[in-house]
Design goal:
The chain contains 3 helices and 7 strands. By secondary structure, it is α+β, with helices and mostly antiparallel strands. The chain is globular, with a radius of gyration of 15 Å. Pfam families: Polyketide_cyc (PF03364).
């Protein structure tokens, strides 16, 4: 039996929602700002599916995700359908001169890792990492906006 952990983090980006949306919705670009994401591949024959690889230290996980819901400039919701169990949503809020990007992610802790690490400690590490990822996304978006 796995334990599920959930985290919600957000960042405000001083860029228009159209730009923020276009950058984030290009899933294959995620490794540019997500520290633990090694690669994201979208099969050309099925754009609702994505193949993910996460690497941190000696740990490596893969999974296949399916997009459940997309409302342009508002939400991308997903669930894994194979591999590391996870689900979540990225929500976008238009603040006219800026945009809020809010990520909620839930994931199952594989049994072996749950036995090795305290879930509270692991949760803090994951939450601080995804918050840093959103800060890197903000910098990335601001660089794109400037150029």
């Amino acid at each position: 039996m796995s334990d599920w952990l959930e985290h919600t983090v957000q960042v405000e980006v001083e860029a228009p929602i159209d730009l923020v949306w276009s950058l984030w919705s290009d899933l294959e670009q995620m490794p540019r700002w997500m520290k633990w994401i090694d690669s994201v591949k979208i099969p050309p024959d099925n754009p609702d599916i994505s193949l993910w690889k996460l690497k941190t230290g000696s740990l490596e996980f893969t999974w296949k995700s399916r997009i459940l819901k997309v409302i342009p400039n508002q939400i991308i919701q997903w669930e894994s359908i194979d591999g590391l169990p996870n689900q979540g949503a990225i929500r976008f809020y238009d603040r006219h001169n800026s945009s809020i990007v809010k990520m909620t992610i839930s994931y199952a802790i594989p049994g072996i890792i749950g036995k090795i690490m305290d879930n509270l400690f692991l949760g803090r590490v994951v939450e601080s990492t995804i918050q840093a990822d959103l800060e890197r996304f903000k910098e990335y978006a601001l660089n794109v906006k400037a150029n």
